[in-house]
Design goal:
160 residues, 4 helices, seven-stranded mixed β-sheet, Nuclear Transport Factor 2, Chain: A
Length: 160
């Protein structure tokens, strides 16, 4: 659920068996920039598709073992995530402060901030969230394997 979602990334990535090698230390490789741009672009695309309620296109960017934990602690799989897309109206949003952390050549974490305005179960919500999104390269294609939002502000009330 892109308006409000969940927590622990590394155990989820380890559980998904996408960390075949330890993360590289030291300066980033020159080829990392295009990968970072691709992942940021894909992350932005998921928001566009979510707003458009394009479940088919979202499914193509989401791994079969996708893992999300909603704010109340509920664990959500790909099927439930895609069902919830149809229940939420994203009126508008803005994304900023992107950072990509490459864990290895086939796994990355994308972190950023999002300001959202939408309707969930008939209730209008405005929020600012810190997002952690995990991506894994599988069969040559980057897929979203994990997503979590930490709510910073909800309906004008600062939580952190």
């Amino acid at each position: 659920m892109r308006l409000l979602a969940a927590l622990t990334l590394l155990p989820a990535l380890l559980f998904a068996n996408v960390l075949p090698a330890p993360a590289q230390s030291g300066p980033a490789k020159p080829e990392a920039a295009p990968v970072e741009e691709e992942l940021i672009s894909k992350e932005k695309r998921t928001w566009e598709l979510y707003q458009q309620k394009d479940v088919k296109a979202l499914a193509e960017l989401t791994s079969e073992d996708f893992y999300d934990i909603y704010p109340a602690g509920e664990v959500v799989d790909k099927k439930r995530y895609l069902q919830d897309v149809l229940e939420i109206e994203v009126k508008d949003y803005s994304l900023s402060d992107f950072k990509v952390i490459m864990l290895n050549e086939g796994a990355a974490v994308v972190v950023y901030k999002a300001k959202t305005h939408g309707v969930v179960k008939g209730r209008e919500l405005k929020s600012e969230v810190a997002v952690t999104s995990g991506w894994a390269k599988r069969d040559g294609k980057w897929l979203n394997v994990f997503y979590r939002e930490n709510v910073l502000e909800l309906n004008g009330r600062r939580l952190l």
